[in-house]
Design a protein that fits this description.
alpha+beta; four-stranded antiparallel β-sheet; Nitroreductase; Nitroreductase-like
């Protein structure tokens, strides 16, 4: 197994989703056929993810990305010892590559999958039926317009509760790239194109989330300016991702990525609605609405729909030299 082959695997695994697109996965080529996965601790969200739950989900998705990339090439991953922690790096997992893999059916949509933050096309009855077909043992689907409208309001309320925290907003702004001149516009974080913002909207977001927030909050304008619930209400459906309560977030991350690939394979775009899972009250309400049992945990949710015609913006990804350690 040559270093060039494994670099290609790392590049494909790097297409996996991560919270705020921080891309915490770091990789090391070990010997002739080994790969180790680390968490880059400088990418940890100290305010938004103090316990590392979202980071672990992101790393699980990256590991699944590596498995998919290996399978595409007829390779499989055999677990080896977890690498030791190092300064700014937490050892996560290690594998040896062997010639015993098969391509996964979902590998064909890996390159196409990315978040769609703009509005979706108006859904048809056929779109809603196709969304309902995504129901699985870890995915519940809501398509009733009345319930979607209710959950859209719950999403805006939950999201605003997080946004009211000064430290949360500051951390979020630190990962937002609202100006094309930002040196990491095409590298990581959330750039204005990926968030479907025009130049004027991006400048407005910098003000609303920054120096103008407190004044706007006092006069009751901050919440409506930040609201995105209308996009939820007008989509084809809401997909609720749930897993056993005691499952490790790393393991949930692999299933999260696979569900997103299933959504893509069904011809839908998707945007993650993290606040519906992160806010306890919202998570309880969405579990009730979707008929999810008490033994399950709402891990995340997606609004889904058909993307209107047009090209998606380029995906921001770290260069290979940043993810190889």
């Amino acid at each position: 197994m040559s270093a060039i082959d494994r670099i290609a695997l790392v590049a494909e695994a790097a297409l996996a989703p991560s919270v705020h697109n921080v891309q915490p996965a770091r990789w090391r080529l070990v010997g002739d056929d080994g790969i180790s996965l680390f968490e880059g601790l400088r990418s940890r969200l100290a305010t938004g993810d103090p316990r590392g739950n979202d980071a672990a989900i992101s790393l699980g998705a990256a590991a699944e990305g590596m498995r998919l990339a290996a399978g595409r090439r007829g390779l499989a991953l055999v677990p080896t010892a977890t690498p030791a922690d190092e300064p700014d790096l937490r050892g996560v997992a290690g594998w040896r590559l062997v010639d015993d893999g098969e391509p996964d059916p979902l590998v064909g949509v890996v390159e196409a999958r990315q978040s769609w933050r703009a509005a979706f096309a108006k859904p048809t009855a056929a779109d809603r039926r196709a969304a309902e077909a995504l129901v699985a043992d870890d995915a519940a689907v809501v398509t009733d317009p009345a319930i979607l409208k209710q959950l859209a309001g719950r999403y805006d309320a939950a999201s605003y509760r997080f946004m009211r925290d000064d430290a949360f907003r500051a951390e979020l702004r630190g990962w937002m790239r609202l100006d094309r001149r930002h040196p990491r516009w095409a590298v990581d974080g959330l750039n204005a194109d990926a968030m479907a913002m025009s130049g004027i909207e991006a400048r407005g977001a910098a003000l609303v989330l920054g120096p103008a927030f407190r004044l706007l909050a006092r006069i009751g304008l901050a919440r409506p300016l930040l609201a995105e619930g209308a996009k939820v209400a007008r989509g084809a459906g809401l997909v609720v991702f749930h897993r056993p309560r005691n499952e490790a977030p790393f393991d949930s991350g692999a299933r999260f990525y696979r569900l997103w690939l299933r959504i893509e394979a069904a011809g839908f775009g998707a945007a993650v609605l993290a606040a519906l899972a992160d806010d306890p009250g919202a998570a309880a309400e969405i579990a009730r609405a979707a008929g999810i049992g008490a033994d399950r945990r709402v891990v995340s949710a997606f609004r889904i729909g058909r993307r209107p015609p047009g090209e998606q913006p380029p995906r921001a990804r770290r260069p290979i030299e940043e993810v190889l350690v």
